[in-house]
Design goal:
Layout lengths: L10 H12 L4 H8 L3 H9 L18 H13 L3 H8 L3 H10 L2 H4 L2 H11 L7 H4 L1 H12 L4 H11 L4 H4 L2 H11 L4
Helix pairs in contact: 2-3, 4-5, 4-8, 5-6, 11-13
């Protein structure tokens, strides 16, 4: 049996797949362009139900690359975080978190920080209930007992006051899992 290594397609290649799919080409014909089996193309197209996903864009409220470069220049020149933040019109806590999250004052690099922020913003993210089976069982039992998500979140805060893995975003996750059937 012949095994192929896993192929990761670039954004340009995916755009070409979507263009040809929209023009009505078959999976077989599209796969021939990449010298791959049609199932590898089907996997890309099926992820979003055969509908081309919207192009990712940054929210206006997040730091831009130019702002990160300004932070980097400010750190190198020895300016305080408050001074850097004031020159950008941002909160000092935003600048402080950005620097701390991306290597500290000595290791901060704007391009690396910008790419990390872009990668971390990818959706959808796995919900906490999918990651933590024990928590999922607890929430499931409470939902079957007709507890509301707010009641469950409040109960978890009292029952597990020192366990952050149970507390963070539990209410939102219990609502999402209830409607999507993730606990069944």
């Amino acid at each position: 049996m012949k095994y192929r290594t896993r192929t990761f397609y670039s954004e340009t290649q995916k755009a070409m797949m979507w263009d040809r799919w929209r023009q009505g080409e078959t999976l077989h014909n599209i796969a021939l362009l990449f010298d791959r089996h049609r199932n590898s193309i089907r996997g890309i197209l099926a992820q979003t139900g055969g509908i081309r996903p919207a192009q990712r864009v940054r929210a206006s409220r997040v730091l831009s690359l130019s702002e990160r470069e300004e932070i980097s220049r400010g750190v190198v020149s020895g300016r305080s975080m408050r001074c850097i933040a004031a020159s950008m019109g941002r909160a000092a806590s935003t600048v402080s978190r950005e620097i701390r999250r991306n290597g500290g004052c000595r290791g901060y690099r704007a391009c690396v920080a910008d790419q990390a922020a872009w990668d971390q913003s990818r959706r959808p993210k796995r919900c906490k209930l999918a990651q933590n089976r024990a928590l999922a069982r607890i929430v499931s039992k409470k939902l079957k007992a007709l507890w509301s998500p707010e009641q469950i979140a409040g109960w978890l805060k009292c029952a597990y006051p020192d366990d952050e893995s149970y507390l963070a975003r539990t209410r939102r996750n219990s609502i999402g899992s209830e409607s999507h059937g993730a606990l069944q």
